Predict the 3D structure of the following.
Amino acid sequence: MNLLKDVILQLFFVLIPFVFFNIYYRDKMRNYSRAFILVTSSISLFLGMTFAASVKEGVIFDVRYVIMFFGLVHGGIRTGLILLGEFAVYRLYLGGEGTLVALINSICSFSVSLLMYKTYKLTHRKSLFVLMTGFIFSINALALTYAYFPLYFVKNLTYHLVVITTQNSLGIWILMSLFSKAISDKELFIRHAQNEKIETMSHVAASLAHEVRNPLTAVKGFLRLMQENPTDLAKSQQYMNICMDEIQRTEMILSEYLAISKPLTIRHESVDVVELLKVMREVMSPFAILHNVELEVRTPELSVNIMANPDEIKQVLVNFIKNAIEACANVRKGRVHLALSVEEGKAVLVIKDNGVGMDEGQIKRLGSIYFSTKSSGTGLGLTYSYHVIHTLGGTVSVNSKPNVGTKFSITFPYLEQ
Ligand code: ADP
Ligand code: MG
């Protein structure tokens, strides 16, 4: 029974990086970092060694090789070496008869890992490959233990065969396959979130087509009037001015739309939120009109600058405004109201609607991946937006009541002029 307990405990410790990854990176728009691998592997290594399997004082068996291999694959050589160092120091501290053989063993297994970890990344048969690696670790540990303590080894043969092979083979297979699955899911999510932009912008585009048709119809009407009375120069001049205005406005909306829907660039600069909100009003008005919703934007007279990536901020604003308009789609006299103000070093943007609202449960889930109450929703718009705002050092708070409406308050650190 003790044998089984020891093995299960070690397999539990081996899961630590995977479990922490799922908790810590759940709603994040990025994959793991080297520091994360080092910290979680170290915890796993430390716990594994502290509560190692053992029948003889000073001779212990745990998942150290599994952890070091994992560290090498996901954290690179430096992480692997640090883990090896941590292991050596802690093993010396724990001491006992097995110390020397443990250190020799770890050098051998670490060398094997160094030879194997690059191939692991390239191979398509990863499961088979890690099982094989685990097997080599086991053979190595069994052979060296036998060489140093033959009598003790033979006396506890079953224990060693079961504990060493299961811990290494099953341990490495569980950790490597679960973690790979988790990170490929995360990659898929990040790609999905980027595609969501295309989906959002295609909804907005549909309403834009309407908005472009109206000025075109107007221009056509005026041109016809000019065609019918070519001699009335004063009237023609007036019509031409109106046509020019209409065309300019349409051109502006279209080029703003194109600017927003193009792929994100990486840049950080001073962005005037007042200017951005004016643009947003133009670009999102057609979408509001299509849903029979009144869109109102109130901004201060002076500019309000924040440090940000303008592409990202525009996308965030589109996400919030689009959600607010969609929430009002089936409401009589739907209204979406945006107001910007400056308070104590912060730019505060309030987005208020009188739409369907949300209950407590829904509010709690806001910003989580894939949370959506819409039949064709993706549930990625707010995940992305929250990520952008938090990265800038901003905050988001929500007030909402079912059938009354929703108020989002977003703050950004304000850039002094
Ligand atoms: P999607 O719009 O694709 O559903 P989002 O991440 O943009 O995904 O929004 C997630 C969910 O949050 C929405 O499905 C909706 O239930 C809720 N939500 C967001 N904004 C509002 C709002 N202004 N009013 C009511 N519900 C909202
Ligand atoms: Mg949305």
Q: What stands out?
A: The longest strand covers residues 334-343. The beta strands are 53-56, 59-61, 269-272, 293-298, 305-308, 334-343, 346-353, 395-401, 405-413. The pocket of magnesium ion (ligand 2) is lined by residues 319, 322-323, 381 (CB under 6 Å).
